[in-house]
Amino acid sequence: MTWRVARIVxxxxxVGLTVWLVRLLMQDLRHRGRGPLPIPQLVGVxxxxxxxxxxxxxxxxxxxxxxxxxxxxxxxxxxxxxxPADAPWSRTLLVDADPEGxxxxxxxxxxxxxxxxxxRVRLRLLDDAGVVRAACExxxxxxxxxxELHLPALVLPAGSSTTEALAWQWELSVHSRWRLQARWxxxxxxxxxTNAEGELLEVPGLLEVPGLVEAPARAEAPARAEAPxxxxxxxxxPAAAPLIGRLVRLEGHTDEVRVVAFSPDGETxxxxxxxxxxxxxxxxxxxxxxxxxxxxxxxxACAFSADxxxxxxxxxxxxxxxxxxxxxxxxxxxxxYTWxxxACAFSPDGQTIVSSACDxxxxxxxxxxxxxxxxxxxxxxxVEACAxxxDGETxxxxxxxxxxxxxxxxxxxxxxxxxxxxxxxxACAFSxxxxxxVSGSDDNTLKxxxxxxxVCRATLSGHTREVNACAFSPDGETxxxxxxxxxxxxxxxSSGAxxxxxxxxxGIQTCAFSPLGDRVCCGDSAGNVYVGDLTRPRRRMRRGAxxxxxxxxxxx
Length: 556
What we know:
The protein has 556 residues and is mostly beta strands. It has 4 helices and 40 strands.
């Protein structure tokens, strides 16, 4: 029974069954000699029966129309990806010092964790003997977590200097009404001061501080640089790489963004969301050029053709749609699935489309006619991702069976099975030269594979939750990954070292490199698309200090 038929016939069946049950109840009462029910009781019983019958009909309709195996698999994956109650806390502390007044004006950025009602942020200054020399605190409203919170002035005791205080222990903690929720205690890891021209200079005497993060001799002046001789100190999250990039936020989607992709010329970004739409963005200005709205359910993947003229998208409405990338007009709809479709890719020549779904298979389609060509079978569970090699000869796929598979794009034969991950493999991608493959998994790691031999070359560890997406830069030297730990990370593909991190991005499911490798893009669970500029040093800003938001664009 289709949804259209159910909407027309359902109300009549609902009312008819309810009236029939009420009449049966009245007849039973007469047979027992109890007489008719009073009007108030009759209305209450009728309303109760109406609700019960409605629930039964809805369950019956779901049992007939919904793919039960797909529904259970979706619920299982949602449970695995839930945010845990003990999600890690993170913080950034910014301190403005007044050398003459002997005080500090601290600001703190708190994210992660779960603050209970009435939680407060407390900052204490402890000398070498562990004695508290100064303290301040402020409430932490739930709505303010993830944004800058200004604390009251931290006044030093008489006879103490701000330079001396910088070497003391700075203890930052989050307290609820009954218990301590988070605490960090350490010396300041980096310190700088500005001269009258607003240039950043190193503070003498702090080079011996353990864990010092060296800063460039000259950089952009911090916010409010008009105050001379002000000290700026920052305590980044432990083990976090310095943030050198900026992020631009593009707003318009009303639900989680599941996929983003750059056009081949780098001028357009396409994003797909669970709000069942795709949006085309100007990659430079952030303006929304078009909204593509014919999918009936959430969009899980999309891709540009190599010439940038077409876009393919897939959805849980069991369809693939072929779009004109310039006008946003729908060209064709490819049907045939009885399961949700969750991944797709264009061949380099633009003639073939590959897609994967919950039915454990991949399908190859003719991009011009929409005819199905070959079905690739071999995975034993959902196929989460797929990609073509640069020469179009090989397809790589990743699945819930913890494996990747390499397929011959001409015959559909499975060439190799790559095993090594201990969890679901959510993402995979070829390098531009086709020699390497990167994969991201539920085991919190990325793995680098030799595309010819299938041998695992390296394992990149650092994410504290599942890796949802990954991609190579055009030169193959850098990898970007999006994790469930609220971070977007960049890795050196040769050494496996983490070189850059954008933190406090909640619910990142996708990421992509621009064709020139100078920008990265990602989407979050709130419907925002972020574009990170990797070529310009990040200014030390008062607002958005965790991930450097420098502008926002809205589609209206």
